[in-house]
């Protein structure tokens, strides 16, 4: 009896991403010496007579996989089933597969915004699959987009993979004009719905070129013409890797109702070193390695990046590195090993580790716990560090904040721990709950380090004592209010180390952390984004919906969860409008109350809003740690209105220090005439230029990378010690 390592069950006639994903996994398995069987099951949604995808036929032809016989029994250590639409009807013939473990990969959403069950009913599919293959099937979504729409799925996504080495094209030849392109199967939902959106994303301009591989006829039909600068190539006429060598920017926008499960073509473009310009909804999958905007923002973004070749190279390199790290072959081999289908010695072209029978070691993550702050400050600091951790020690986020959904959208594996307020528990009972949940998460994820951006609640201290084989670190922001927090400082002994983010206003810090710096590891101020991650001014304005010829101001006075921010908003907005400014009101992603309306101002709800700061001329902001340091670091003229109702954070001292340093203006009492006097200064161009120059002189760095290195070092030390 032949036992294969992996059996893949699917309909191998699908022409697009399903077959490309299967081919990538089979090649990775073959390179690691694993034997793969392909079990073909016709989908009721594919017409009879269709051939196998050329990608699948090539695998069988080259001996990288064996096609299971319809009447035989396939034995495998792991069965992977792809494409849920196969099971929308009862199967005429149920394939006989005997596997040690079975994974059902949900690589398509059940429906779209207009019809949530357009493609399949999840409950019906689940019932059929469990009847055919048993109740112990692991249900794994391909992406956070699918996870967010279905209940009871596996802890980890069965994400797409790619071998970056097969897609790299070396140095690209730069032409006279930028070339925008896209490739994919012909399907109307894969294109913008309106002609206006389509021409914004793929402009008809003599100094731009557009190349389309597959589906171009759909766009031409929508436009009623073929733009002169468009080169339309039929699907299959060029190999995607060859096509990607001919374009400079990969631009992909689709029908707004479509729920795109992953975005395989985006992954391929990034692996080939082509900057990808896509919609914000893809951020949970591609993080900060792609460029995000709306169709209207494509042309300004293309022109800004084309004008800066060095930045273009950085963006392309960052994309390749991201894809290799998160979606490379090693990630697939690791998940196979976790499910009993680890690598075996191979006789051909296997990596050295596979030839010697060594399975990839499971990464030991850094578990990052944040408090339930009224804003996203605690969580954002941890995400800033987490996105810079190495692959061998990835971040797992655990948060008491409503912002758990934000962390998931940013691509982090995220656990939500309800706060005491949410649960309505007495303090002692909640401490026991918190301890129990933390111990469970440590046992589940096996972190090498737990990093806590929170005050040390009793439940955290108890969990640290109960799991001493893990390194516990307190990420302790400075600048506490004088006379507060002594009870928290007294619990520092519960931690193996303290990491302190830098503070520009440190000289004005009179809080209890100042005399408690012995043995504390300090870094520069921690920012979520680096300067290179910010959208260029034109692209930022387009994304924010701003006119290019009028100054623009943003009001971000807090999450709306601490105190009443409504009263000064109207006065500030009116003053700015009278001065000719476009006014935006930033609404926090976790605000429990809607942003108060202000005539002539528009509410924006984006995370992180800092990505678009270069499109603004002025920001009126609370002086919380994150916003304060972002505005100074990125040279944005600011008026700080400190929040006085915080329990620990000394926003008043921070804002006063920035004003004294000449880096910002400050309004301590927005109810008084001080507000109008300071705003009258802030709207003057020469004042804003002076503030921007002063910020440039200060030149704040970003300590997130150094913090990630330090935590990764602690994690590596923990692993070496055998803890």
Automatic annotation (TrEMBL):
The GO molecular function terms of this record are:
hexosyltransferase activity
Residue stretches making up the Glycosyl transferase family 28 C-terminal domain: 609-686
Domain of life, per UniProt, equals: Bacteria
- Entry's SUPFAM superfamilies? UDP-Glycosyltransferase/glycogen phosphorylase
InterPro entries named among the record's database cross-references: Glyco_trans_28_C
> Which protein, by its recorded name, is this?
Antifreeze protein, type I
Task: Provide the species name.
Answer: Actinoplanes siamensis
Q: What is the lineage of its organism?
A: Bacteria, Bacillati, Actinomycetota, Actinomycetes, Micromonosporales
């Amino acid at each position: 009896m032949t036992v294969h390592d992996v059996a893949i069950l699917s309909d191998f006639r699908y022409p697009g991403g399903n077959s490309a994903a299967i081919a990538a996994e089979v090649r990775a398995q073959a390179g690691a010496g694993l034997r793969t069987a392909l079990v073909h099951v016709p989908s009721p949604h594919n017409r009879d007579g269709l051939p196998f995808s050329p990608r699948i036929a090539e695998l069988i032809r080259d001996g990288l996989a064996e096609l299971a016989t319809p009447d035989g029994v396939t034995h495998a250590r792991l069965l992977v089933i792809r494409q849920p639409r196969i099971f929308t009807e009862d199967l005429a013939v149920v394939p006989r597969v005997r596997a040690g473990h079975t994974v059902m990969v949900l690589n398509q959403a059940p429906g779209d915004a207009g019809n949530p069950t357009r493609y399949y009913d999840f409950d019906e599919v689940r019932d059929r699959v469990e009847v055919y293959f048993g109740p112990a099937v692991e249900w794994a979504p391909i992406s956070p987009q699918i996870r967010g729409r279905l209940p009871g799925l596996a802890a980890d996504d069965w994400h797409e993979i790619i071998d970056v080495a097969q897609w790299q094209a070396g140095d690209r030849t730069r032409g006279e004009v930028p070339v925008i392109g896209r490739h994919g199967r012909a399907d109307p939902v894969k294109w913008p719905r309106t002609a206006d959106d389509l021409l914004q994303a793929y402009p008809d301009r003599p100094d731009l070129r557009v190349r389309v591989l597959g589906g171009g006829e759909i766009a031409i039909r929508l436009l009623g013409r073929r733009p002169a600068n468009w080169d339309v190539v039929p699907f299959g006429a060029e190999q995607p890797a060859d096509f990607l060598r001919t374009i400079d920017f990969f631009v992909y926008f689709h029908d707004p109702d479509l729920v795109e499960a992953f975005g395989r073509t985006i992954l391929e473009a990034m692996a080939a070193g082509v900057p990808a310009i896509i919609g914000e909804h893809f951020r949970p999958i591609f993080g900060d390695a792609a460029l995000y905007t709306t169709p209207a923002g494509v042309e300004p973004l293309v022109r800004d990046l084309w004008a800066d070749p060095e930045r273009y190279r950085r963006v392309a390199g960052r994309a390749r590195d991201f894809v290799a790290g998160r979606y490379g072959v090693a990630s697939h081999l690791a998940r196979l090993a976790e499910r009993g289908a680890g690598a075996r010695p191979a006789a051909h072209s296997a990596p050295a580790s596979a030839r010697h029978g060594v399975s990839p070691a499971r990464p030991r993550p850094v578990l990052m716990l944040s408090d339930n702050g009224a804003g996203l400050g605690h969580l954002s600091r941890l995400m800033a560090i987490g996105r810079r951790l190495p692959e061998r020690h990835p971040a797992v986020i655990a948060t008491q904040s409503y912002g758990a959904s934000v962390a998931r959208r940013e691509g982090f594996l995220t656990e939500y721990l309800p706060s005491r307020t949410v649960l309505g528990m007495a303090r002692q009972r909640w401490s026991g709950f918190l301890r129990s949940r933390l111990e469970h998460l440590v046992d589940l994820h096996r972190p090498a380090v737990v990093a806590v951006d929170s005050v040390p609640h009793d439940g955290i201290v108890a969990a640290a004592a109960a799991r001493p084989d893990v390194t516990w670190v307190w990420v302790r922001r400075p600048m506490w209010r004088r006379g507060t927090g002594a009870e928290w400082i007294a619990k520092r002994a519960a931690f193996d180390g303290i990491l302190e983010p830098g503070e520009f206003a440190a000289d004005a810090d009179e809080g209890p952390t100042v005399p408690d710096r012995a043995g504390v590891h300090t870094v520069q101020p921690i920012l979520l984004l680096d300067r290179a991650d910010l959208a260029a001014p034109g692209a930022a304005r387009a994304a924010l919906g701003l006119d290019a010829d009028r100054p623009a101001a943003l009001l971000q006075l807090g999450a709306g969860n601490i105190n009443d921010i409504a009263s000064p908003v109207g006065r500030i907005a009116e003053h700015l409008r009278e001065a000719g400014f476009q006014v935006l009101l930033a609404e926090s992603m976790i605000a429990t109350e809607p942003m108060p309306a202000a005539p002539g101002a528009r509410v924006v709800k984006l995370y992180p809003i800092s990505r678009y700061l270069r499109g603004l001329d002025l920001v009126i902001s609370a002086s919380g740690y994150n916003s304060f340091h972002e505005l100074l670091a990125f040279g944005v003229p600011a008026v700080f209105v400190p929040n006085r109702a915080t329990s620990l954070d000394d926003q008043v001292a921070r804002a006063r220090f920035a004003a004294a340093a000449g880096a910002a203006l400050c309004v301590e009492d927005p109810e008084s005439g001080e507000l109008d006097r300071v705003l009258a200064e802030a709207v003057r161009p020469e004042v804003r230029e002076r503030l921007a120059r002063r910020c440039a002189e200060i030149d704040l760095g970003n300590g997130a990378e150094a913090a990630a290195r330090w935590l990764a070092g602690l994690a590596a030390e923990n692993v070496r010690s055998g803890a």
